[in-house]
Amino acid sequence: MLPSAASTAESDGTTIELSSHSLVFPDGLVGCQAWKNFVLLTDDKEDLPVAYLQSLDEPHIRLLVTNPLLVENSYAAKLTEDDRASIELEPTDQSVLYCTLTVDAQGNITANLLGPLVVNPRTRRGRQLVLTESSYSTRHPVAQLQEA
Amino acid sequence: MLVLSRKSEQSLMLGSDITVTVLAIDGDRVKLGIQAPRTIPVLRQELFQQIQAANAAASASAGELRRIAAALHGRTTDPATTD
After folding, report:
1. Are A143 and B64 within 8 A, CB to CB?
2. For the domain A5-144, what is the CATH superfamily, name and number?
């Protein structure tokens, strides 16, 4: 297990202090069933709108995640009964949604809005949804990476 | 791979609680009905592969947290939750 505090090295040589919150995805991610245990790494000081979801099962897997409402301000995801049961979501619990981000070689940032991650902060359980009834894509354009 | 021939309205069983029924055949399109427990996710393979590829691609962006955050700069909102 990682310690509860960690830091990450940026490509410009600086570091960011991160705090970690352990999460379990009992079913793994879609197509990546072995990725069950994660820590969510968020920065303490700068309040960055992005975070890492670090796999503990595959140490080289570190997903970049953000709040999908920053990508699409009308974003909505509906949970099934099975989704709720999987993350033990009670009516009094407030779930939190994340979407993964990808940066391609040209610096285009895209978001996977079709397969968001839902987390129950109380139980620290999560699940990847597939919004089959939606028209969201796995490569929703977000922004262009600015030159360093 | 197991290969089975089925006619319209015939079914096959996967284990004892998943039934796949051929509902209609129209040219090169086959309409299937799937009965499975709710805990079994049923997805078109293309969709499954798209999400799988997106998961793999999202893990290749380490080391750029501040630059990516800068690209999202100015966007603020409440935490996203579900219905």
Report:
1. no
2. BH3618-like (2.30.290.10)
